[in-house]
Amino acid sequence: MGERFFFALWPEEEQRQALRAVQAQLDQPGSRRVHPADFHLTLAFLGILSPAQLDCALAAADSLSCPPFAVQLDCFGSFPRARVGWCGLRTHPSELRQLVNRLWSVLEPCGFRREQRPYHPHVTLLRKAKPIRPGGLSQPIAWPVESFVLAHSKTGATPRYQVRKRWPLSP
Ligand code: 2AM
């Protein structure tokens, strides 16, 4: 399997620790915990890239301008078909939608196509998970977002994901 690229929000250590506690609460026999260093919120999944596509994606992100914002991770649930357990946000900040929309609008000239299915921002915590009844976190996780990254998977590595480049958000 080749390296798969994706744009994402990358939590700081404080959020990783809080997400780790949620992960421990949701854990079930037979599920696999995502390594805490791999926790992220995907903005745009690109997949395997040619060198030219990677250059185009990097230049596209260089051209982007978006303000910082805050995310409140306050709920959990699962995608039963994908068998993932996740932590998510009930309220999607308009700046998050704007960032995702602007990202796709600069990526489309590179030939990337936005997925048609609705965007559900989430941080995957468990894989091979049985369905989880959705609920709210008793202690929501505040996440000030000041940058976004392009990351990629590394076959056979743990942690599995590596940040390729980080871009600051600026007012
Ligand atoms: P997931 O965490 O719910 O599995 C890297 O694979 C990241 O891109 C993961 O966060 C994954 O979501 C996300 N992703 C989005 N669309 C994907 C797709 N079609 N194939 C694989 N991963 C995808």
Explain what the structure shows.
This protein has 171 residues and is α+β, with helices and mostly antiparallel strands. The protein has a single domain, classed as Cyclic phosphodiesterase (Cyclic Phosphodiesterase, Chain: A), CATH 3.90.1140.10. 23% of the residues lie in helices and 36% in strands. The protein contains three helices and nine strands; from the N terminus they run E-H-E-E-H-E-E-H-E-E-E-E. The strands form two sheets. The chain has a five-stranded antiparallel β-sheet with strand order 2-6-5-4-7, with helices on one face. The longest helix has 14 residues. The model has no long low-confidence stretch (mean pLDDT 96). Bound molecules: adenosine-2'-monophosphate.
Average pLDDT score: 96
User: Termini separation (Å)?
Assistant: 39 Å
Walk across the major sheet and give the strand order.
2-6-5-4-7
Query: CATH topology, which one?
Result: Cyclic Phosphodiesterase, Chain: A
Number of domains: 1
Helix content: 10-25%
Secondary structure category:
alpha+beta
Computed CA radius of gyration, to the nearest angstrom: 16 Å
**Number of helical runs?**
3
Topology as a string of helices (H) and strands (E): EHEEHEEHEEEE
Major beta sheet, specifics?
5 strands, antiparallel
Bound ions, cofactors and other small molecules, one mention each = adenosine-2'-monophosphate
Poorly predicted runs of 5 or more residues: none
What is the CATH superfamily classification? Cyclic phosphodiesterase
CATH architecture: Alpha-Beta Complex
Shape: globular
